[in-house]
Specification:
Layout: E1 6-15, E2 18-28, E3 33-38, H1 44-52, E4 57-66, E5 69-70, H2 76-81, E6 84-87, E7 94-98, H3 99-113, H4 121-134, E8 145-146, H5 152-166, E9 170-174, H6 182-195, E10 201-205, H7 211-214, E11 219-224, E12 227-232, H8 235-243, H9 246-249, H10 255-260
Parallel strand pairs: 3-10, 3-11, 6-9, 9-10
Antiparallel strand pairs: 1-2, 1-4, 4-5, 7-8, 11-12
Bound molecules: adenosine-5'-triphosphate and magnesium ion (MG).
């Protein structure tokens, strides 16, 4: 078997001295799309922040490996340069920095970290043009400050465009339940589906069974109280919708068989 793209081993994370992640085990093989579902406050966003290396998320045990290499000691920038991309539930707003400028800086920072030449402005413009056409992103929003006053859908479009430009090998997407209309949902799914290929893996955090009709996952994991309590195929999302999360809370005590399933 080839090295998994993402491997999380017994990950325990504390936030302000409170343990939030209580031993997460997860393997996302190369080329697969996995979904994580779970009730509010179960620790899904905490998992994405811990993977990203955000300040204040203290790993007390376990490991996170990207393409076979431990990333827990790397800075967020180093993780990005290694091919990790995080799309957050609440995207940051950067007043005064045009989206275009931000995208170029993000691309060049990664190229620099990999020892590659920086893109010239014409080269960058060419890439943006082709990516935005490919994803039907209106280039008008690129002139505006990043995410400032963007609608939910525009934020998602900017995010998917960033993902297309950076060509990460592992994408982690934390979607919010509110604020995404059907168009935004489609933008995210189409963008994700266009980027699906054998060399790229994705982890999609969502409450939406509906999103998973557009992005059909290879595996679905149920999160409860800081760990994965059950894993299965895409039909697990439907089961969750009909039974609710409470039926899965009961198995939280017998995590071992749930996570290995
Ligand atoms: N900075 C913090 N200080 C204290 N507790 C925190 C902090 N950040 C998160 N938590 C707690 O950690 C738990 C998990 O939060 P998290 O945001 O990871 O949940 P989630 O599964 O993403 O929820 P949602 O579905 O609502 O997005 C919650 O109980 C939350 O209150
Ligand atoms: Mg969350």
């Amino acid at each position: 078997m080839s090295t998994p793209m993402l491997e999380i081993r017994n990950l325990r994370v504390q936030v302000e001295e409170k343990e939030i992640l209580k031993g997460v085990d997860l393997v996302v093989p190369r080329g697969e799309v996995h979904a994580i579902m779970g009730r509010n406050g179960s620790g899904k966003s905490t998992l994405s922040y811990a993977i990203a290396g955000r300040d204040g998320y203290e790993i007390t045990d376990g490991d996170v490996l990207l393409d076979g290499v431990s990333i827990t000691e790397m800075s967020p920038d180093e993780r990005a340069a290694a091919g990790l991309f995080l799309a957050f539930q609440y995207p940051i707003e950067i007043p005064g920095v045009a989206t275009m400028t931000f995208l170029k800086a993000a691309m060049n920072a990664q190229r620099k970290a990999r020892g590659e030449e920086e893109l010239t402005t014409p080269q960058f413009m060419k890439e943006v043009r082709s990516a935005s056409e490919n994803l039907s992103v209106n280039r008008e929003i690129l002139k505006r400050s990043l995410n400032v006053g963007f609608s939910g859908g525009e934020k998602k479009r900017a995010e998917v465009l960033q993902m297309a430009l950076l060509q990460p090998k592992m994408c982690v997407m934390d979607e919010t339940d509110s604020g995404l209309d059907i168009d935004a949902l489609k933008v995210v799914s189409e963008g994700v589906n266009k980027m699906r290929d054998g060399g790229r893996s994705m982890l999609v955090i969502t409450h939406y069974q509906r999103l998973l009709e557009y992005i059909v996952p290879d595996r679905v994991h149920v999160f409860s109280d800081g760990r994965i309590v059950k894993s299965g195929g895409k039909e697990l999302a439907l089961e969750l919708e009909s039974k609710g999360y409470s039926s899965f809370d009961k198995v939280a005590g017998s995590v071992a068989d749930g996570a290995a399933a």
